[in-house]
Amino acid sequence: MVIWNFLFSCVPFGSTTHTEATMKLHPLGLFLLSCTWLLLCAAAPVTVRAGIRREAEALVNWKASLVSADDSLGSWSLANSTSLCKWTHITCNSAGHMTELLLMQTSLNGTLDRFDFSAFPHLKSLTLFSNGLYGTIPAGIGNLTSLAQLYIFNNTSLRGAIPHSIGQLKHLSELYLSLLGLDSNLPEEIGNLTTLEELHLHSVTLTGSIPRTIGKLVKLRELSMQKNNLTGSIPLEIGNITQLNNLQLWYNYLQGQLPGTISNLASLQELVLTGNQLGGHIISEFGNSSLLDTVDIERNNFSGLFPSSICIGGRLRIVSARSNGFTGIHHHTFRNCTSVRYVDFTANNIVADIKDCVGEHPWQLSMMSLGQNHLYGRLLTDGGKVFICNSTYLTFLDLSNNLLDGGLPKCLWDMPSLGYMDLSSNSFSGVVPSWKTCEDNLICLRLANNHLKGTFPLGLRKCKNLISLDLGGNNFSGRIPSWISKSLPNLIVLRLSSNMFGGIIPHQILKFQQLHVLDLSKNNLSGPIPDNFTNFTGMVHNAEDIVSDNNLRFEIISGQTQIVWKGADHGFPILMVGIVGIDLSGNSLSQEIPKGLTTLLGLRYLNLSGNHLLGCIPEDIGNLVLLESLDLSLNRLSGEIPPSFAGLKSITALNLSSNNLSGLIPMSDQLRTLPDPSIYSNNPGLCGFPLEGCVDSPTSTQSGMSQAEDNREALWLYCFVAAGFIFGFWLYCGMFWFYSETWRCAFYQYVDNMQGKVTKKMYSCMSYFQAKVHG
Ligand SMILES: *[C@@H]1O[C@H](CO)[C@@H](O)[C@H](O)[C@H]1NC(C)=O
Ligand SMILES: *[C@@H]1O[C@H](CO)[C@@H](O)[C@H](O)[C@H]1NC(C)=O
Ligand SMILES: *[C@@H]1O[C@H](CO)[C@@H](O)[C@H](O)[C@H]1NC(C)=O
Ligand SMILES: *[C@@H]1O[C@H](CO)[C@@H](O)[C@H](O)[C@H]1NC(C)=O
Ligand SMILES: *[C@@H]1O[C@H](CO)[C@@H](O)[C@H](O)[C@H]1NC(C)=O
Ligand SMILES: *[C@@H]1O[C@H](CO)[C@@H](O)[C@H](O)[C@H]1NC(C)=O
Ligand SMILES: *[C@@H]1O[C@H](CO)[C@@H](O)[C@H](O)[C@H]1NC(C)=O
Ligand SMILES: *[C@@H]1O[C@H](CO)[C@@H](O)[C@H](O)[C@H]1NC(C)=O
Ligand SMILES: *[C@@H]1O[C@H](CO)[C@@H](O)[C@H](O)[C@H]1NC(C)=O
Ligand SMILES: *[C@@H]1O[C@H](CO)[C@@H](O)[C@H](O)[C@H]1NC(C)=O
Ligand SMILES: *[C@@H]1O[C@H](CO)[C@@H](O)[C@H](O)[C@H]1NC(C)=O
Fold this sequence. Notes:
Blueprint: H1 2-10, H2 15-23, H3 27-65, E1 90-92, E2 98-102, E3 109-110, E4 125-127, E5 132-136, E6 149-151, E7 157-159, E8 174-176, E9 198-200, E10 222-224, E11 246-248, E12 255-256, E13 270-272, E14 277-280, E15 294-296, E16 301-306, E17 318-320, E18 325-329, E19 342-344, E20 351-353, H4 354-357, E21 367-369, E22 374-376, E23 396-398, E24 405-406, E25 420-422, E26 427-431, E27 444-446, E28 451-454, E29 468-470, E30 475-479, H5 484-487, E31 493-495, E32 500-504, E33 517-519, E34 524-528, H6 543-549, H7 554-558, E35 561-565, E36 568-572, H8 574-577, E37 581-583, E38 588-592, E39 605-607, E40 612-614, E41 629-631, E42 638-640, E43 653-655, E44 660-664, H9 669-672, E45 685-687, H10 707-738, H11 741-774
Parallel strand pairs: 2-4, 3-5, 4-6, 5-7, 6-8, 8-9, 9-10, 10-11, 11-13, 12-14, 13-15, 14-16, 15-17, 16-18, 17-19, 19-21, 20-22, 21-23, 23-25, 24-26, 25-27, 26-28, 27-29, 28-30, 29-31, 30-32, 31-33, 32-34, 33-37, 34-38, 37-39, 38-40, 39-41, 41-43, 42-44, 44-45
Antiparallel strand pairs: 1-2, 35-36
Residues 75, 77, 79-80, 86 line the site of one 2-acetamido-2-deoxy-beta-D-glucopyranose (NAG).
């Protein structure tokens, strides 16, 4: 069998040509030829053996050039060269030639410079992934004339260019050059690889534009060139790759329009162009491929109407067109789209009635995101029909930041799969309907910034898996229910700000064990801040620790919440950033700041501004070393700022203005970075950096000055005042006796000036004195 193979493989020309030639020859010629043939075949094993030896030598030489490799290359040795096929990582054909080299994750460190590619004319498959190759890809790689599969990926230290000789690999069907550290154009010669079926060139980094010769790869099925620095436009010739079913060009710098020839790609299943600078209109025929499954064109500049034929193939599952400039969706586009699962048009300029964006048939839809557009209309149609509730598989619904109005339909709460619902920043009105069940799936509910009214929605009592609840910016009133922490034990974010909630804060609010964000600001809450923080454990640790422990679902992590800190409004993907904070500002809360607050070591912001809080700042405030933003302004806090205050080493936004604080402001390197005196203003007795008039005064340097010293100072002050008075009196009277009119006037003026100066000095002295006495 082996011999037969040798015989076969030694025939230098195609065997059919040879047979034809044989037929026409004279018998003698035939005899001579037969002899030659026999001789050649006898020599064949020798040639083969020489070939194999060259392969073995090439491998051993290359191995010797490596800086290091793991033990698995141990069998590569010339002493073993007769059994090349038994070497590790190698596959042979029956003639004993290497046809496959598979070296992956061998902690191999070295270059390909000493790899003699021309020694392997039989190599069909070369795999060198997840190694430590550095240097460049040598031009000699073009000598692997039988190569069908080339996998060199995840060698991030490989530099330089893709060699032009790559075009010589005439039999190549799969080329994977991904996750490398290159810096080059894709050479035009790529178009010579006309047998190529898969081309993967992601994260390499390619620069320049996509060569037009790419259109010659008519057998190509997969093309991925994402995460490169490609510029220029997508060439028209792309439309010639009619077998293409997967096109990935995301995260590049591609510009211009999507070529119209794209609609020739009748086999296209997946098109991903996210994160480029493509723009203009997309031709309306686009998407008529009967196999089209995924269209992801997020974060480009596409405009105009979204192509209406996108659903014609009947297989479309995913459409993501977030962050573009589309102005409309044709009302037929999704009408018959029964296959679609995920639709995201967030942040476009779509002006449309909501019911035209959504099909009428029961959908398989599991995610739908239409936020940040100009959608209008109502969820509850005039006939009382609610189209959205037909979507029994819907898990994600984002209609935020639109112009929707009317009431909220009851059925929304009974959708069996819904996990994330964001209806915030619309004009929904009325009361939140109560609901029978709250499905276990609902974990994030945002109804903020609408015109909803009524009491705290009672139906929420059943939503025991809720993690994030935002009812801010509505007209809710009544009390915050005491059942809240017991019924919603998993809450991480609770935002009720800017409503009309009244009464006291129920002490049960401190029974939440996971809460990271508590925002009750701008309501009519009164009474004390509850003070039993023993079970309030969500804010005790650095939030990053907590988040990594939680196996939270994607939509929650990507969901945003609105918080105010460092004086500005922010939308935060809360759990990613690990924001932890309390905002009770803008209420009528009274009594002291509870000392237990200083045990919440994970706090990154605390805002108690605009209440009626009394007493001192808690002595241990400095324990809050992660605190970045602290606002206690507009209260009635008094006493000195505790020395531990200097321990707030993360503080970057501070406001203590408009209280009755007094004494010296503690100082630290971090506090010194906050030089704006207004953050301490309107506290009559406060002094020290950055306030003026105190830092240089020798009498104001120590807050613990003794009573005796104080008294002596007071005595001196009185003496000065008395002496001044006597002196002035005598001068005033004396001049009637001794001097003429003109002299008298000049003298009056002089004394007037002096008096002004003395009064000013005395006033500042007195106010300091007063402050001391009160403090
Ligand atoms: C030859 O290869 C075998 C495994 O195929 C290996 O065990 C042996 O150590 C090798 N011999 C030498 C001299 O490297
Ligand atoms: C490979 O070897 C070079 C030269 O010794 C060394 O600088 C480099 O750090 C090594 N790379 C790896 C991944 O070990
Ligand atoms: C191998 O490739 C290089 C570069 O393409 C070329 O110069 C050289 O002649 C080739 N060697 C053989 C033996 O084919
Ligand atoms: C690719 O683009 C990024 C961002 O513009 C840049 O930092 C990087 O240096 C570029 N890489 C190459 C190889 O051009
Ligand atoms: C290979 O590609 C180059 C550049 O596109 C072209 O000039 C050349 O003719 C091609 N060679 C073959 C053999 O097709
Ligand atoms: C490839 O596409 C271009 C532009 O779309 C076209 O002019 C050309 O004829 C096509 N080539 C082939 C071989 O189909
Ligand atoms: C899609 O539209 C293009 C351009 O109108 C057309 O050439 C092509 O045949 C159509 N393909 C299918 C599958 O309908
Ligand atoms: C939707 O489907 C109906 C019935 O199958 C069909 O009559 C209608 O033309 C389709 N509409 C679109 C826009 O494809
Ligand atoms: C809340 O209700 C009051 C009166 O009932 C109304 O004036 C105000 O506009 C409402 N606020 C919002 C945000 O709807
Ligand atoms: C504290 O809250 C008030 C009112 O709610 C707001 O104006 C202020 O900017 C907040 N302070 C900080 C530091 O965020
Ligand atoms: C501090 O708070 C007061 C009262 O809340 C506010 O008017 C002022 O703008 C704030 N100052 C800074 C610097 O935030």
